[in-house]
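User: For my dataset I need records formatted as: sequence, then structure tokens, nothing else. Please produce one.
Assistant:
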Amino acid sequence: MRLSSMADYAVVTMQAAAQHCGGARSSATQLAAETGIPLPTTQKLVSLLSRSGLLKSIRGAGGGIQLARPAAAISLADIIEAVEGPIAMTACVEQGSHDCALEPTCQVKPHWGVVNHAVRSALDNVSLASLAHSPPASVTESATA
């Protein structure tokens, strides 16, 4: 499983926006410069993230972009879902019709919900605040702690 570039860039953009938390508002141009993400992509991400209620945009003098809620109240799952939609390992667990020939007799389908919940919970447990303000522990450090 791999995130799309847009989901990855959304996380990077939100991390940069969180760096401005409590300070001056930023702009898409400023976020693009800080992250190295092309301006048109940053503008598209700002629009998606604003529509999802993660960023808010204020027009006019003194306007700009800021987090819509505290960084501690925004999870990695929130950011990814703003770009990718609901987190699901397979489409068969989502509502609606699917093009899977195995679906009527699939023995695995009932278990995907558990897997999806575990993945979403793991992403939900990483806050934007933790991404913005502390270096990550290495995998070996977390395993031995």
